[in-house]
Design a protein that fits this description.
There is one protein chain. This protein is mainly beta and 72 residues long. The chain has one domain. Helix content is 0%, strand content 50%. The protein has no helices and 5 strands. The strands form 2 sheets. The protein has a 3-stranded antiparallel sheet with strand order 2-3-4, with no helix packed on it. 8% of the residues are buried.
Length: 72
């Protein structure tokens, strides 16, 4: 697993800057801990504000929205 960043970050939609975004992932049941454990995260990202597939950008938490993505 990657090291924790020194400052909080957020992931945002490259098109609209919204943070209502999700990624496809796999979780597997951990019998010993009795809870789901995230085991794989995939490239597909979805913006619930745009209601479409997107590319995610990483920015400081609470950051201002980026300029609009020029790609349709």
């Amino acid at each position: 697993m990657a090291d924790k960043p020194s400052s909080p970050i957020e992931y945002a939609c490259a098109r609209c800057g919204g943070i209502a975004v999700t990624r496809d992932a796999w979780a597997e049941w951990n019998v010993a801990r009795q809870r789901w454990a995230l085991c794989e995260v995939f490239d597909f990202a979805f913006c619930h504000q745009c209601a479409r597939e997107t590319r995610l950008i990483e920015r400081p938490a609470g950051g201002a929205p980026p300029p609009p993505d020029p790609t349709p």
